[in-house]
Write a structure and sequence with these properties.
16 helices, two-stranded antiparallel ribbon
C-alpha cells in the first residue's frame, strides 16, 4: 500500500511541476517530429523504388514481347545491351526509428559496364549532427543522447529537495528506508520513459505493417532501449543516494552525461580519425583516371595477358579455341579489366574502413552510447554494414554482367526465352 501511495505522490508531483511536464512534452514533440522526418524519408525511398521497379518491369516486358515476335534467336551481346539492370537496397520499415546512414549512401544503382561501388551516386558525406543543424532529427539520436538529459531533469531533485530543506529524516521515520523511497519515486520516471519509447516503436511498426515481418527486430529495439534506459537510470539512482542536495546531484548527473554521451564518443571518434584518417579514395580515383586511360592504349597482347588473370578459364576450357580479342569485344574486355582495377582499389578502402570499425568496436565497453547507436542502426538496416552488404550486391551484379559479356559471345550463345530468363536472374532483375 505504501508503494502505491509513493507512486501516486510522484505522479501528482510530476503533474503539478510545470517545468517537468513541459520538458517531457518537448521531448515527445521532438520525437514526433523525428518520426515524421523518418516517415518522409521512408516514403520517398519507397516511391523511388516502386518507380524504378515499374520502369524496369516495363522494359523487360518489351524485350520479352520482342522474343515472342521474332523467329531468329539473337546474339547474347545484343540482348545483354537491352536488359536493364538495377540493384536496390529496399528501405526497412523500421528506418523511421533510426535514419542512421540512410542519407549518406544511395539506395539504388543502375548497373552499367563502367559502374563501381564508389560512384558519386553511391556515396555522400553527411553526418548526424549536420542533419540536426539542417532540421532532420533522428529518433534514435533523441533516445540515445537526449533522453538521458530528460531523465536527469525529471529526477535530479528526488531526495535533493528534501535534503535542501532538511526534512529527509522525517521521510525515514514515516517510510522506514530512504533508499526504497527514492527507488519507488525513481521507478515512476523510468517506467514513464520506457513506456513512451515502446509506444513510439509500436506505433511505427503498426503504421508500416512491420509487426509480423520484422517482429524480432522490434523486440530487439524494445529490449535495447529498455536496457539502455535502465543502465543509465541505475547509475543516476546511486548518484542520488550518495549525494547531498539538488545542486550536487544535478552536477554529478550532468557530468556523467557529458562523460558517456559527449566526451567518450568524441574522444574515440578523434582517436580513430587520427589513426585512420578520412579516406579521400585516392586509390580509386587513380584507377578511374590515369590507369583507365592507360588501359585504352594497351595492345591486344597486353589486354589478353590481363584478361587471363581475371578469367583464366577462357584459355583453359573444354571448347577447342582460345579467346580472341577483336574490335567487337575489345570494349567489353577493357570494361572487365577496369572493373578489376576498381575492385582492388575499393578493397583497400573497405579494409581500412573495416579496421576503423573494429577499433571503434573495441571501445564499446567504455563507450556505451556508440555501442547502442550502432546496434540500433543495425536493427533498422541503416548502419555501415547494411550498406556494405548492398555495395557487395552491386559489385556482384557488375561482375555477373561483365562475365556474361565476355563468355556468352565466346560460346556463340543464341538467346532463347529460357536463356533470357537466366540472364535476368543473374543480373538481379527478378
Amino acid at each position: 500500500m505504501r508503494l502505491l501511495n509513493v507512486l501516486l505522490y510522484e505522479f501528482n508531483h510530476f503533474r503539478k511541476s510545470l517545468s517537468k511536464v513541459v520538458t517531457y512534452l518537448i521531448f515527445v514533440l521532438a520525437s514526433i517530429y523525428s518520426l515524421y522526418n523518418g516517415f518522409d524519408l521512408y516514403q520517398k525511398q519507397q516511391a523511388t523504388v516502386e518507380s524504378i521497379e515499374q520502369a524496369n518491369d516495363n522494359k523487360i516486358e518489351q524485350v520479352s514481347n520482342w522474343f515472342s515476335r521474332t523467329q531468329i534467336a539473337p546474339n547474347a551481346v545484343d540482348v545483354l545491351g537491352y536488359i536493364p539492370s538495377y540493384q536496390i537496397k529496399q528501405p526497412s520499415p523500421l528506418l523511421v526509428l533510426g535514419i542512421g546512414q540512410a542519407e549518406q549512401y544511395g539506395f539504388y544503382k543502375k548497373i552499367t559496364n563502367w559502374s563501381s561501388t564508389y560512384d558519386n551516386d553511391m556515396v555522400e558525406e553527411i553526418a548526424n549532427p549536420e542533419r540536426l543543424v539542417n532540421g532532420n532529427i533522428d529518433f534514435s539520436f533523441l533516445v540515445i543522447f537526449l533522453l538521458p538529459v530528460l531523465l536527469i531533469i525529471l529526477t535530479y531533485n528526488i531526495q535533493g529537495f528534501e535534503q535542501d530543506f532538511r526534512f529527509e529524516k522525517l521521510i525515514k521515520i514515516q517510510f522506514g528506508s530512504i533508499s526504497k523511497w527514492v527507488l519507488i519515486r525513481f521507478i515512476f520516471y523510468v517506467f514513464l520513459l520506457i513506456f513512451t519509447i515502446i509506444f513510439f516503436i509500436l506505433i511505427v511498426a503498426i503504421l508500416n505493417n512491420a509487426l509480423t515481418s520484422h517482429f524480432s527486430e522490434i523486440i530487439s529495439l524494445i529490449f535495447l532501449a529498455t536496457i539502455y534506459i535502465l543502465s543509465f537510470a541505475s547509475i543516476l539512482y546511486f548518484i542520488i543516494l550518495n549525494s547531498s542536495g539538488s545542486s550536487s546531484i544535478a552536477f554529478k548527473m550532468i557530468s556523467l552525461w557529458l562523460l558517456l554521451c559527449v566526451i567518450m564518443p568524441g574522444s574515440v571518434h578523434q582517436f580513430s580519425s587520427i589513426k585512420y584518417p578520412v579516406n579521400y579514395m585516392t586509390d580509386y580515383l587513380d584507377s578511374n583516371r590515369q590507369e583507365t586511360y592507360e588501359v585504352f592504349e594497351l595492345p591486344i597482347d597486353s589486354l589478353r595477358e590481363r584478361l587471363v588473370k581475371i578469367h583464366p578459364s577462357l584459355y583453359q576450357n573444354d571448347i577447342n579455341k582460345s579467346y580472341e580479342i577483336n574490335t567487337t569485344n575489345r570494349r567489353n574486355v577493357i570494361c572487365a579489366i577496369v572493373n578489376e582495377m576498381n575492385r582492388l582499389a575499393i578493397n583497400t578502402i573497405e579494409n581500412q574502413n573495416d579496421s576503423k570499425n573494429k577499433l571503434i568496436q573495441s571501445t564499446y565497453l567504455f563507450n556505451p552510447a556508440i555501442f547502442v547507436q550502432n546496434k540500433w542502426n543495425g536493427l533498422t538496416s541503416t548502419d555501415y554494414y547494411s550498406y556494405q552488404k548492398y555495395r557487395d550486391n552491386v559489385q556482384k551484379t557488375i561482375d555477373n554482367k561483365l562475365k556474361l559479356l565476355i563468355f556468352e559471345p565466346w560460346y556463340d550463345t543464341k538467346v532463347t526465352p529460357d536463356i533470357f530468363q537466366k540472364y535476368l536472374k543473374e543480373l538481379n532483375n527478378i
